[in-house]
Fold:
Amino acid sequence: MEKVAIVILNWNGSEMLRKYLPSVIQYSREEATVYVADNASSDDSLEMLREHFPEVKLIVLEKNWGFAEGYNQSLKQIEAEYFLLLNSDIEVTHHWLTPMIEYLDSHQEVAACQPKLLSIFDRDCFEYAGASGGFLDRFGYPFCRGRIFETVESDNGQYDTPADILWATGAALMIRAKDYWQVGGLDARFFAHNEEIDLCWRLRIMGRRIVCLPDSQAYHVGGGTLPKGNPMKTFLNFRNNLTMLYKCLPWALDYLAAWEMLILKRNVGDFLAVYRARRAFKRWRKDFEADRRKIQASRVAKEIPERKRFALLWQYYVKGRKTFSSLP
Structure:
């Protein structure tokens, strides 16, 4: 069995792999095996990898399974103590793996961790997708040490201490294989967005810890498959967020989201997308009833401190608290 398997899920990402895979190989090969799992790409990804990166192990999937199920299908083919799910647009640094490996080795109660994630375009600034570890407010809005909504902070060392978090970014997520499979892996029904938050929250309910380890750092291009402000991205975010709340809470609601989009951001497209998301959630909610019962039955942690009691919209827009350190 391998100690660490770094698994990069790829779909038509030949150019990203050419640019950022060399850093992963250079700074990881002594401590981990690097895999690229290809989601039936139609570009030259496979040919390029075979020619230029023969040391990388390939997993060739027969169709595009999407993010969550693509990882589930790929990880079934790997035997390792730790999986590290890594985006193809990540540049890693010297010594980035050691802090995470050592922490998991010495803290058996920790299921998963992430590095500090910085922007590849502004290396003194946090990256939107995960910054220095993720949390949720009382209504399920995600935020990070270093990023609240669209406000992304400069990295001045203010979040350089290890911290317990609710969710670790899926852009660079190291997780124990046994924990990954114990909770059933990523929920493939989400298609895109919120999968890693849902996964980590299920682990926290079971009493497992999630941490951010800023001694490890990586740089992320970010942006995902859909640009910010895209109504489809908004639809997926809110449909999946409501589904996650339904699975992980004894109750769930999200009445503020649509009005925040319309009144505060004056974005009619996103306003309508939130209502479409609510209707879609109501249609498929019954498909998650068994999941909800199973998750609630597994509950060890009655209160999860990384799910904050305050309303983030109120703090951000009314109180003007736009940095993590200024929150209650």
The radius of gyration is 19 Å. The first strand starts at residue 2 and ends at 10. The mean pLDDT is 91.
